[in-house]
TrEMBL record:
Transmembrane segments: none annotated. It comes from Aphanomyces euteiches. This is Uncharacterized protein. The lineage of its organism: Eukaryota, Sar, Stramenopiles, Oomycota, Saprolegniomycetes. Residues 772-796 have a biased composition (Polar residues). Residues 770-796 are annotated as: Disordered.
Length: 796
């Protein structure tokens, strides 16, 4: 590749002296750039060696921790096996003691059953005697009650006879009074009436007919009003029934919703119970299979560690073969990228399948919700229909009320007409008052007399009937009481006979009881002996139970200790997993930084050997804080100012701000791009403070630092937006120490054409010379194996 000077330094043909000076400086500048490029390449190789050594140290530490964990787990497994064997022995001893105790318990149960049978016989005899005594006492109480009732009936009969005599006396007095009144009544005679009296009678009859008609109309209106009121009451009752039905339906809906909620809760509880049962079963299985699971976990961890070792070996092999197979690395990177894309596509497909399944579940859930909503909507429609019916009935009620108002208005008009007619009839009424009063008094007197006479007759007949019926009842009750007395006498005699028989039976029972008592005493003596034996056996049993409790306590202690040990092992295992995850994250970060180092190296080579790149563009080169001093010297050695310095997508942190200030101090740059680096807000403030010390007016806004002079003209702009957190970085870069390069004896003079035409990229990175050097063993050695940097790499 040919490198042109015109792209980096623009030569103006205005001055011949300047052209001569530039031509004189060209070889020195090219030599300096070649030396800087070589230094950078050597630094990159040293950094890769250091990363490989760090990986080896971390892998060795992880292997030591795994070996310690496996040894501790093996010791604990041995302890657990001893404990389980001891528990099995204790359980066998407890089973033997339980068998002996069961035999003794069976003998005790036989003796207790015999005693229970004897006691049940005695209790049955006592119960029969008490039942006989209770029946005799109940019959005596019934006899006393019947005698008291007969006495009360006799007293009632005497009182009724006295009342009958008094009523007969009253009836005789009233008959005499009626006869005297009938004799004192004056005799009435018919008289001839005049034409005036006849006309007045006709008017009175017409008035009476009109009044009767009005009264009929009023009665009809009142009946109509009553019917309307009854209809209104029925309508209100129906409305209340409808409201009750509505409330009942609402309550049913509410109850159905509650039932649904309860069913859902019940389902959840059942699921929780199933989960608990599964958890209990798993716990029981885990208690028996902990050792195997721990071994499986250790095997899995060993497999993972072997995989990590394989990864580390692969990385070390990659580091060894970097010098020989750069083209292969590129092809492998392409293959890896294709694999990653395929894996990402497969993961996307899996995520799509999961998303579809989740969508199906959500659709089913929405369908259930829609069904519930439809049920509620149906209920609401029914309620609305019922409400419409209520509205219609209310409208009918309003129509009926309007009709009532119309009838009331008609009533008011009829009442007004009635008042007018009453005013017309007042005169005639005043005339007829006296006659009507006399007539009504006579009529009332006659009606009162007839009603009183009829009432007396009815009362007399009723009294006679009651007297006859009571006399009949008394005779019947008297006969029944006499029969009952005879039966009671017979019953008492029979009871006396039964009592005599019972006394004889009691005597026999006493004799049998005495015999049974003798047998019981004999049994008691036997029982005392058995109880003494049972006490001895219980003492032995208590001793065995004490030993069992002690054994159970020891067992629980051993179980607690084993649980504590398992918990400690689990905690250690968890810590190991966390440390492993942290190491994996650091390894991923280191891989990412390694890839960025490789990309930065290739980007630096591209910037160095491509003509199209302007000077000052160092984006995506993965420059660190340790690389900035070289750039300080580069900027300080410039003859003219640069328009822009592009440091974007590098790993510059707050520690490199001081070098950035040294770069910006001569004010040779007007624009600096520091996007996508690792500078914190504190570093931005530090940069702004440094620019203020240079005598500039600084304005900081959203990661952009603008420096202006006193006139307000912008001198410098530094873009520090979109920066990242520096704590995520793992590797800390350092300046590589310059290695002492031993020149071989057969090295010829450097070819001056290399500085002009350039060399191959692989030879620039990995080779120092193209001439073969003879080895002591006679084998051919490549330049990569002769370099001290490759000899310093760790041998894996």
């Amino acid at each position: 590749m040919k490198r042109s000077v015109e792209s980096t330094f623009v030569i103006r043909p205005s001055d011949k002296r300047t052209n001569c000076a530039v031509e004189q400086r060209l070889p020195r500048i090219l030599a300096m750039e070649n030396e800087e490029a070589r230094d950078d390449k050597e630094r990159v190789i040293v950094l890769l060696n250091e990363t490989a050594k760090a990986f080896q140290l971390q892998v060795a530490a992880l292997q030591e921790e795994l070996s310690r964990a496996t040894s501790s787990i093996a010791q604990k497994d041995i302890k657990l096996q001893d404990l389980t064997q001891h528990v099995v022995d204790l359980e066998n001893e407890s089973l033997e003691q339980r068998k002996t105790n069961q035999g003794l318990n069976s003998q005790l149960q036989v003796l207790q059953n015999t005693l229970a049978e004897v006691e049940s016989q005695l209790q049955s005899a006592d119960a029969e005697f008490e039942e006989m005594r209770a029946t005799y006492e109940a019959k005596e109480a019934e006899f006393d009650k019947k005698s008291a009732e007969s006495r009360t009936l006799t007293t009632q009969i005497d009182g009724l006879r006295i009342e009958i005599d008094r009523l007969n006396v009253i009836i005789h007095r009233q008959e005499k009074a009626l006869q005297t009144k009938a004799e004192n009544v004056p005799k009435m005679a018919d008289a001839c009436l005049s034409a005036r009296d006849f006309s007045e009678k006709q008017l009175i009859s017409l008035r009476d007919d009109a009044l009767q008609a009005k009264s009929k109309e009023l009665s009809l209106v009142t009946t109509a009003n009553d019917t309307l009121r009854a209809q209104l009451d029925a309508f209100e009752a129906e409305m209340e029934n409808l409201q009750r039905t509505l409330t009942s339906k609402d309550m049913e809906l509410y109850r159905s919703a509650k039932r649904i909620d309860k069913l859902e809760r019940h389902v959840e509880k059942l699921e929780a119970a199933v989960k608990r049962a599964d958890g209990q079963e798993l716990a029981m299985e885990l208690s028996t299979k902990q050792n195997t699971q721990l071994l499986q976990c250790l095997q899995a961890e060993e497999a993972k560690n072997e995989a990590l070792r394989a990864k580390v070996d692969a990385l070390t092999q990659d580091l060894v073969h970097v010098n020989e197979q750069k083209s292969q690395i590129r092809s492998d990177a392409a293959v890896v990228e294709i694999d990653v894309e395929l894996k990402t596509k497969s993961l996307e497909r899996q995520s799509q399948t999961l998303a579809t399944s989740l969508e199906k579940l959500q659709k089913e859930r929405e369908r259930m919700r829609d069904e519930l909503a439809s049920v509620r909507a149906k209920a609401r429609l029914e309620v609305e229909a019922i409400q419409d019916e209520l509205v219609q009935r209310r409208s009918k009620q309003y129509e009926l009320t309007l009709k009532l108002h119309e009838t009331e208005s008609l009533l008011h008009s009829s009442q007004s007409r009635k008042e007018i007619l009453e005013e017309e009839l007042q005169a005639t009424q005043e005339r007829m008052k006296d006659l009507e009063r006399l007539y009504m008094e006579a009529k009332r007197w006659k009606e009162d007399m007839s009603s009183a006479f009829e009432g007396l007759k009815i009362e007399h007949s009723q009294l006679q009937r009651t007297h006859k019926t009571e006399a009949k009842k008394f005779d019947v009750e008297r006969a029944s009481l006499q029969e009952q007395l005879k039966e009671m006498e017979r019953f008492v005699k029979a009871q006396k006979m039964e009592m005599e028989q019972r006394e004889e039976k009691k005597k026999l029972a006493k004799e049998e009881v005495e015999k049974l008592e003798k047998k019981i005493q004999e049994l008691e003596t036997r029982i005392h002996g058995l109880v003494a034996e049972a006490n001895n056996e219980t003492k032995r049993r208590v001793g065995v139970e004490m030993e069992l409790t002690i054994a159970h306590g020891q067992l629980s202690q051993f179980q607690a200790q084993s649980n504590d040990m398992l918990a400690g092992l689990y905690a250690k295992h968890k810590k190991l997993q966390e440390a492993k995850e942290a190491v994996q994250q650091q390894l991923q970060q280191l891989e990412y930084e390694y890839k960025r180092e490789q990309q930065g190296k290739s980007q630096l080579l591209r910037h160095c050997y491509q003509d199209s790149q302007p000077k000052g563009t160092l984006s995506s080169c993965w420059l660190s804080d340790a690389d900035l001093p070289i750039l300080v010297r580069f900027v300080q050695g410039l003859d003219r100012a640069l328009e822009k310095l592009d440091f974007g997508s590098n790993r510059i942190t707050d520690q490199g701000v001081k070098y950035l200030l040294q770069i910006l101090k001569p004010m040779m740059v007007s624009m600096v791009n520091l996007q996508e680096n690792y500078i914190s807000p504190q570093g931005v403030r530090q940069l702004a403070a440094g620019l203020e010390e240079f005598g500039c007016i600084v304005n900081v806004h959203e990661g952009r630092v603008e420096a202006t002079d006193e006139a307000g003209k912008s001198i410098l702009t530094v873009d520090i937006s979109d920066n990242k957190d520096a704590s995520s970085l793992v590797y800390k870069p350092q300046m590589p120490k310059p290695a002492k390069i031993k020149k071989p004896k057969s090295v010829t003079k450097p070819d001056p054409l290399k500085d002009i035409y350039g060399v191959n990229l692989v030879q620039v990175l990995m080779e120092k010379s193209k001439e073969p050097v003879s080895n002591q063993g006679g084998k051919y050695q490549t330049p990569s194996t002769l370099s001290p940097r490759t000899q310093s790499l760790p041998k894996l």
